[in-house]
Structure formats: C-alpha cells, structure tokens
Amino acid sequence: MNRKILFFALFCLTFSYAIAQETKTDTSQIIIPIKIGFEGEAAISDTSSTLIVAEDQQANIAYNDGVQFYQQNQFSASVQSFSRALELNPNMTKAYYGRGTSYIQQQDYQKALDDLTKYSAQFPNDANVVYLKGYCAYYLEQNENAVTFFNKALDLGFEDVNMHYFMGVMKFKEDKFEEAISHFNKAISVDPNHFYSFNDRGSANRMLEKYDDAIADYYRAIEINGDMALLYNNLGSAKRLKKDFDGAILAYDKAISIDSEYHYAINNKAIALYESGKYDEAIEVFRDVLKLKKDYAYAYNNIGLCYYKLKDFESAIEAFSTAISMDSEYAYAYIHRGSAKEMLRNMEGACEDWKKAKELGLDVAEEYCSVCIEYKK
Amino acid sequence: MKIKNIIIIALATAFSFFVSNAISQVPVEINKKEFKQGKNGYKDAMASIKYADVYYNMGQPGAYRMALTEYLNAYEYNQHYPELNYKIGACYLYSTQKDKAIDFLDKAYKAKPGVATDIYYLLGWANQLTYNFDEAIDFYRKYKNDNPQTDAKKKKDDKSVTHDVDKKINECESGKQLVKNPIRVFIDNLGSTVNSKYPDYGPVITTDESLVVFTSRREGSTDGEIDPNDMLYYEDLYIAYNDDKKGWSEAINMRNLNTEGHDASVGLSPDGQILYTYKGVPDGTLFESKLDGDNWTKPKELNKNVNTKYHETSASISYDAKFLYFVSDREKDEFGNSSLGGKDIFVCEKQKNGSWGPAKNMGTPINTKYDEEGVFMHPDGVTMYFCSKREGSMGGYDIFYCENDGAENWSEPVNIGYPVNTPDDDVFFVVAGNARYAFYSSAREDGYGLQDIYRITFLGPEKMMVVGSEDVLIASSTATIQQKVEQEVVEVKKVRLTIMKGTITDALSEEPVEATIEIVDNEKNELISTLTSNSKTGKYLVSLPSGKNYGIAVKADGYLFYSENINIPEATAYQEVTKDIVLSKVGIGSKIVLKNIFFDYGKETLRETSFPELDRLVALLNSYPDMKIEIGGHTDSHGGLQFNTQLSEARAKSVVDYLVEKGISKPRLSYKGYAYLQPIATNDTDEGRQQNRRVEFKVISIK
Q1: In angstroms, what separates the C-alpha of B573 from chain A's closest C-alpha?
Q2: Which of chain B's residues have a Cβ under 8 Å away from the Cβ of A168?
Q3: Sign (positive/negative) of CA torsion B172, B174, B178, B181?
Q4: Which residues, given as ranges, of chain A have pLDDT below 50?
Q5: Which listed CATH number (3.40.718.10, 2.120.10.30, 3.10.50.30, 1.20.120.530) goes with B185-458?
C-alpha cells in the first residue's frame, strides 16, 4: 500500500490545521500528526513599547521569529530561533514549548521531551503539554512514561482520540488485547470515524480469535477508508483464519487490486489456496510473490509445504532449503525440511534439521528429536 | 487345522448361514440361449459350474477358492450371467483378492436385482471391504429391511452378533472415522528372502527384531503334502535373521519343529528363547519349544491350565516370563468367571514349580462379547496389543491396544488405526521393544503373493506445518505481526524400556557360556525373572521396564557370579544397552566386583537393597565349602586416606558380618580396606568415582 496516501488521508481527515511534517520512511511507525497550537501564546509584536531590557527584547524578537518559522513549517529555522531566544533569556519558558514542538515536528522526540519537561516544570497542569510529552514518550517507545503522561492529561481534562488510540496500540504490542480493545473503544467514542482504531480493534479481536468481531471491525474501517490495501488484507486474513477461504481470497484480491505490489496480500491469498487444498494453484501464486520479492523466505517455505502436501518431497526439500538459505534462522523451515526428509527415509538428515530447529528455540522439535535414537536400519 | 483357518472359518461359519440359504435359493439356471459359443460353450460352462457348485456348497474358504477357478472358466463363455457373477463375487469375498468381489456382485445386482436373497448383504460387505462405507451402509440397510428376522434372531440367539447387520453398519461408521484420521506409517515388505508366492503370515519377533519366526504355506513343507481343505501346502514354521547391514536372511524351514500337519507360530519370548506354536489337533492346542544352543526342543504341549478341550489359539509371554497370555474359547475360567463371548484373552501366572497356574479370564475392558484374538504383550510390561471384533472395529478383527496402570487395571482399548487396520481381518501383530516398529501379515498389491510379512514403521502424528504469513495488523505501523503459532505437543507414544543384551563368555577361553541371569528388583528385594543365555552363542537379552533399580546376577556352574546394577528412573525412554559379560572360573586369585552392595552415605551401614547380592555370595560360599575369600572395600579419592581407609575397612567388615550372620564360618572370611589406592576407573568423573566406590571379593584359597 502506498504509505503517502495513508499519511495524506490521516492528515486531511484528522487534523485540518495540523502542522505539516517531514515523514521518515525508515521507521516502522507511521507518525500520526498532532495538533499543536499557539493560540494562547501569540507572538510578541510590540517590542518597542515594553520595558524589557535590550537582551530580553532580542530574545522576544528571536521567539517571534521562531513562531513565524514554525507557522511556515520551517522547523529547523524555528528551532534555531527558539534556541537563540533561550540563549538570550533562559527564563523564557514558552520558548521551550516552541522549541519542543518544533522538535516534535522534526521527530526528534527525545529533545522535544526534554524541552517540554522544562516547560512543564513551570506549568505542570498544562494538559496539552502533558499530552505532548506522552506523545513523545510513545514514539520513544517509553510506554510506561507515555501511559503516565496520557493518564495525567486525562485527569486534567484533556481529551484526544489519538491518546486513546496510542494507549490501545501499546496494550496491543504487549499482547494485552482485551485492554487494547477497551482503549480503541474509547478512541472510537471520541471519533466514530477513526479507522485506525477500527482496524486495530479488528486486529485485537483477530488475535483473540474472535474472527466475526474482527471481520466487522475491518469492514467498518473499509467503510471509512476504502482505498487501503492493508484493510482488505487484514479482512482477508480474518476470513482465512475463520476458514472462509473463498471470502478471504476475494478480500485479498481486492487488496491486490488496490496495490498490486502488496506482497503480503499475494502471499496470504496463496496461503488461503494452500489451506483449501489447492496446492498447485497456491504454488503459482507463491511464485507471483517471488516476482515482487525474490528473497522472501516465507514464500519458499510455503511452496515447500505445498510440495509436501503433494507428496513431492524432493521439491519440498529444495524449496525449504532455499528458504533456509535466505533466512538461516527460520526454525519452521528446518522442521518442515526434516519432515520431508523423514518421508524420504533420510532419518539422519531429518534429525539434523529437527535438532537445528530445537537450537533455534522451537521446543516442539525436542519431541521430534526424541525419536531419532529409535530409528534404525 | 491351521490358525488362519480358525479365524477365517469363524467368519465363514456364520457367513455360511446366509450363503447356504442363498445357495439353495439361487440355483444356477443355465440358459443355453445365453451362450454365444453354442453347444460346446454351453457344455463346457455347464461342466465347470457343476464342478464348482460342489466346492461352493461345502462352504469352506479353501473350497470357495477351488470353486472360483471353475466359475471363472464358465465366465469365459458368458460374462453377463447374473447368477454366475454373483457366485464369483461371493467366492472372491473369501479370497485374498476381496476387492475383486464388488465388480461381479455389482454386475449381478444390476442385471438381476433379485439374484439372491443376500445380494444386499454381500454388496454391503464388498463395499465395506473396498472402503465405500456409505454405499456399504445403504446396502446393509436394504438387507435389513428385506430381512427383518435378523433383529428377532439377534434377540433370540446372541451368538448371531457376528452377522448382525447393525454391527456391520457400526463397523462402516468406525471405518469412516478411522480412514478420515489415518495414522502415519511406512509399511515395508520384508522382501523375497522372507516372503514367497504362497501365504506367509503369523510373524513373531524378538524384541530387538533380530529374528522373525513365521508360518508359511510354501512349497517344500514337511512331507510336501497339500491340505485337501484349501489345496495349499500344510503350514510350516520358518525363521529368518536380521542383519543390520545385510538385511533379512533367507527364511529357513524349522525342520525339527515342523510336523506333517499344520504347525503355526503364535508367540515368541522377547529374548527369542521360547517359541509358542499352535496345532489344530486334537482341538486347537498350544505348544512350547525352547532354544537349546542352536536347536529347538521338541514342542511340548502346555499344561491343562492352558490347553483345554476348547480351542486355544495364540499366546504371548510377559517380559519377566511370569505370565502367559493366551486366547481360548472356553466357557469359564478356573475362577468361575464366564467367558464374555466367543474367544477371550486369558492369563496364567507361573507357579513356583515353573508350571502355569490356573487360567483367569482378563475380563473387561479387554474382552467383549465379540471375539478377541492374537494377543501380544509388549516387553515394556505395560502395553497389550490384541485383535478384536469389538465395537470400534472397521471390519472383522482390528488391532487394538491398551495399557496397564501397574495395579491390574487396563485402560479402554484403542483401535490402532488405519491403514494398519482394514475392513478385513487384521490378526497377527507384534511390536518391537522400541514400539517404533511392528510386524504383521497382509495381502497387499506389492506382495509376492497371497499374504506376506510386513514391517510397519510408526511415524507418529503429522509434524507441525506452519505457513509463513505476516500481516500489518496495526494501521499506524509498518511492522508486520505473525499469527501466534501454538506449538502443539505431538503425542509420541513413549516406550519406557531398556533392552540389555550381549554375550556371556569365559574369561580365559572366550567361549560362550550358558548362564542363568537373575533379575532382581533391588528396592523390593524381589526376584523378577530368571532367564538363560544361549548355550551355543552365549547371547542373552533382558527387558527392563523403566522405574526400577535392577540388580542383575549372572551365574554359571564353576564360575564366580557376575553382578550388575542398573538403575532406570521412571522417565527413562527406550534404550538398548549392549553389555558383554565375562565370567571368571572359580579359582585362587579370581575376584569380582559386587555391584549391588549399597551403604548409607558416608557410613558402613548396609542397606537392605544389598541383601539379594549378599545372599548370592552366601550361596556361592555354600557351594564351595572350602573356599576362603577376602572382602575388599574401596572408595573414590574424595577425602583423606585415613578416613577412606577406615570407611572402606568398616564397610568390608559389614559384609563379612552379614555373611557370618548367614552361617558362613568366620575363619573363611577376611576383610581389608583399600581406600582409594586400587582404583579401577578415573577419579575425575562422577561415573569413574562411582565405579571406584565398590566392594570386591577375592578367592584366597580353594581345594
């Protein structure tokens, strides 16, 4: 799926006056832009009428420049201006806020958090800043801190859909799916069109094997935003796990029609074919995945499984070996190759593979290895 | 009467009720017009059919085979004649090519639905045998609708259950389930050195699969006579040996066991030293033969507790030779328990005088109102395999297994599964010590003819197959998440058994020695079993189920005994231990390590578990009244010399005190503490130190 489209959609839908940002593509997290306003902190316009000493006047000028740069989305320049203001007047707390928010826009969350912390030392009950600190902590993966900040912001009366959403995501990543669902529910109550929350709640339901609920959530997310391959792919996987292979394949096809290079959906479609016993067809589709991603170990493993089911154990071994050559720590591929070798009466080879899988942490392989000593002749 | 016939005839006898009725109602009405070849064709066909009918009406399995040949001759002249197709189909149901029956029966039925009153039953059976269970059920139901007297008969005479149509329907339902969930096995023909184009069946094996004894109807049988009942050679016993490198040897006729009549193999002790055979005369009798060197002793009829006027057909001895399990159709056991129906499994316990005690019906859940057959007690002492027509069978006899909890409670028998079990009779089934392999006979397409011996390799449940799949589950992340894979525990049946085997030889000549091997439960101070090594080869094999501390004593006249201690914790999985034992002749200076002497930690107090070993020493000293010995105590190198010297001497003295207490005169005994000064192994390892901590006795003088 095209990440830029997703980002644009998020931007337009959620924050009409959100400040633009530079996205980073090398992180696994997609930055959800946040609302940072300066309504209460208007630029100091009339510097001449004040009794501020010269340095303070310079500081004010620098601060005002910072605000202007910020509003023009020139965050490097705004950081410089706010820094200059602070050099001239270290007590200008609001400059910490300005620089901190600029750092957020630059996705330099640690520096942002440092500045916002200095700001909140003076204004501990500024709910917006507490929330921003939670936001930074979230992206710094300081989950405990993030939850503390978010909860404090809530206590201070701050309400924001993303805050609930982020808490849901954090719980999801901790495999606490029930709690995650509870947070996604709150997010949805704040914003009934928050498709992120619908998708992620669907995923939490999927992990809880509540496939009907998952499917309903994915459908709702698609209703809100029907152009995302990701949503159709997830819908397909929920249906596949529910053994509705035809329905799954339809959903995967839709995902592929939206983004023909979305290899996850192609791989999953082939898995649905495999799981419905259409091994030859599945092999063809797995090969399509490899046309897009030639070093995709999963696809080779899956091709091996198809050959195994077709009782073509030599071809299966070849495919599993290729998967292993691409990912030498692919424990399941060792298990599978061992099983194929077993069927070809190569017990020595099978036991070697199972032993390797055991070394890679698959406890179940230990059970397989236990019989190796009993094979003979 | 051969054992296979016993089983087949059981089926045939009851089936003949239907067939014989059918025959009387289904005269082969030869219509001259239907024979295109004209007068000669009609004449030849008529002759074949008349000849075949004689056999057919005999209602015997072998006779059906003879009838089939003639019917097939007639079939050459007219392939569309319903009655002929019907009879050919019926004959095939008694052949080893049962799958051929269905085409003929189907043809007969389509041409003439009322060709015979039991056509539905036979079509049901033929479909069942070819795994068309749904069709089989339909035909059985039709048969039942046409023959409502079946149920009435069932109520009146419960013995008719063998032919209960409801039972057949249940078998089909079981078959559907079993076929849906097949077990994973390799089934390998033992090859041309063992199998022949004639029926080969009834394999029995040593627990280490080093040999197989089986029954064959091949050419070259004793006296070369043919059984007129089935026109096959009389059964003879054959033996073949397994070599890890060369595979199975040529099967050898066991001439000194075989007689002019039928001789069939039914059981073999785990060490291959006792063979149980079956003879149909006078009334289904079990015999025992022992291996003396390389000669089998003349088969001896088992005592009257085992053999009765009823049929006793298969036998299996427990790993400790204390129990004999066998099959009989007697009506009551010697404890007054009635048979549960048909053939049941019974057990006899060995008496102190070595004879088999009164037989006891094993009762439920092993025995049922249906027939049980082919009992095999696994050397793990826990698992019993047997065949039964009970509920849950997919047709005829199926192989089941159940387990003992150690307190004579048996678990509910479990069908071993398809494809080992089939809708046909599956009878003879023996399992190697590791339970990974089993042997049975089967009529398969890849065979050398009729029935062959096959080796089954159990692969266990399917290993886990995990597809490589990933999804971006969190919309605000590009990170993929894999569905969690539950690492399902694959249930692998674990055999907790140690096989200890090797050869016993003379220390000087290195010649094999025939020795007695006593296995003692050290904790219970109880003799578990006594076995003998082969006098010709010195080979021995003992089965030691896990969960005991075993004391093993090897004794032979003129030799000092040899002792071994094997502690096998409960959880120990299957293992084979090869231990060659060298016996020293009694003579001055000869000495042995007493490996089953146990002391309290750091003390000289003898534990009770030492008493069996010490009693053996007492017996040896009583056998040689002039023998004087020294008991030597030894320690490992832990601790100082003074402490170890005192401890080893005190322990040696404890042994001497015990011997004196048991009546050995004190002047014959001396003792010495050697501390750690005479190690027999390294003191750098636990194992070595354990070997060094020992008590030895040495012969000082003997007249």
Answers
A1: 9
A2: none
A3: positive
A4: 1-27, 39-52, 376-377
A5: 2.120.10.30
Flag whether A182 is in a domain.
no
pLDDT of residue A374: 52
Task: Say if B246 is an interface residue toward chain A (CB within 8 Å).
Answer: no
Compute CA distances B267 → A250, A355, B290, B360, whole Å: 61, 38, 12, 19
The CA–CA distances, whole Å, from B104 to A125, B74, B79, B126, B127 equal 94, 14, 9, 10, 12
Divide the 703 residues of chain B into consecutive groups of 10 and give the mean pLDDT of each group.
Answer: 41 33 43 61 80 83 83 85 91 86 94 88 94 95 78 45 76 96 92 93 92 93 80 91 90 90 92 91 87 89 92 92 93 85 92 92 93 93 93 93 87 94 88 90 80 90 90 86 63 73 87 90 84 88 86 89 84 81 87 85 84 87 89 90 91 93 92 91 87 89 82
User: Considering only CB atoms, which chain B residues are within 8 Å of A28?
Assistant: 477-479
Element (H, E) at B64: helix B61-77
Amino acid, res. A73:
N
Q: How far apart are CA B435 and CA B270, in angstroms?
A: 13
Q: Residue B484: list chain A partners with CB under 8 A.
A: 207
- Would you state the pLDDT for residue B491? 56
Distance CA A146, CA A132 (A): 9
3-class SS of residue B633:
strand
Q: Which amino acid is at A191?
A: D
What percent helix, strand, coil does chain B show, rounded to 5?
A: 25, 30, 45
Closest by Cα among B96, B163, B109, B161 to B135:
B109
B382 phi/psi in degrees, rounded to 5: -120, -40
Give pLDDT, residue B5: 45
Distance from CA of A119 to the nearest CA of B (A): 29
CATH 1.25.40.10 fits B3-177, yes or no: yes
Å from B208 to nearest chain A CA?
A: 11
Q: What sign has the CA pseudo-torsion B124, B130, B134, B135? A: negative
